[in-house]
Structures are given as C-alpha cells and as structure tokens.
Amino acid sequence: MSGFQSSDGAPETPDGVQIDLISAGRMSNLRTMEKIRTILDSVHEGNIVILEDGLSPDEESKLIEVTMSEISPDGFTGIEIETYPRPSNDGGLFNRLMGKSSDNDNKLTVIGPANRIETLHKDENLISALVTRR
C-alpha cells in the first residue's frame, strides 16, 4: 500500500475514486453548517459522498449557497447532487397538515465534484452516474 490516507485516517488509493458513505446516524448529530462542512470538505478532496438520508430542503439550499461562494476558476468547480425522493407513504395531505411529515423527505443522496461526476440517468429507482479520475 502506498500510505495515502484520507482526512479521517482511512487508506486511500491515489488513482482511484474514494466514496464516503455517511450514515443517517452520523448526520443526525450534526448542525446544518457541520453537515455542509462534512460534505464539502470531502468533495474538495475529490471524493464522492453518499448520504443515507439526504438533506432537508433548507440544508440543501444552504449547501448550494456555500458551494457557490467557494467556486474558483482555477480550483473548486462546484458540486453535482442527485437525490432519490422518499416514497410517499406518510398518509397524505392530512398528516402533512397535522405536522406529521418528516422534515427530510429525501433518502439516498449522491454528491460529488462537478468536474468528476456526471449524472447519466435518474428515475425513481436508479441514479446512474459516470465518475472520472482526477
């Protein structure tokens, strides 16, 4: 092994693509800006991030806002983000009106550097993406 390590000490191969799978449990203990920094720090390193439970609409908007402020012509090119919608089994409009819907209506979310990931196809059951090396 070459001895490369990611920010959390995990082994990393210099010519591969690192994918960080982040559990809902880990993200649930973080505040919005901590979530955004966790995601963007990993994406800045060229990694692909997969969130088990995705972000709330407000968190996703903030992620895009922070990303836009960090884009630079010779450096960070931004992010590509795709999310599966959560199946609608919450009982419909009545439960949403009564405040029983989840704040986070997304499940799996894939986030990566805009210059390394390209979405080829997305539907309710599949996200197909092409990931390139640096």
From TrEMBL:
Pfam families: OapB. InterPro entries: OapB-like (IPR012017). It comes from the Archaea. This is DUF2073 domain-containing protein. It comes from Halomarina salina.
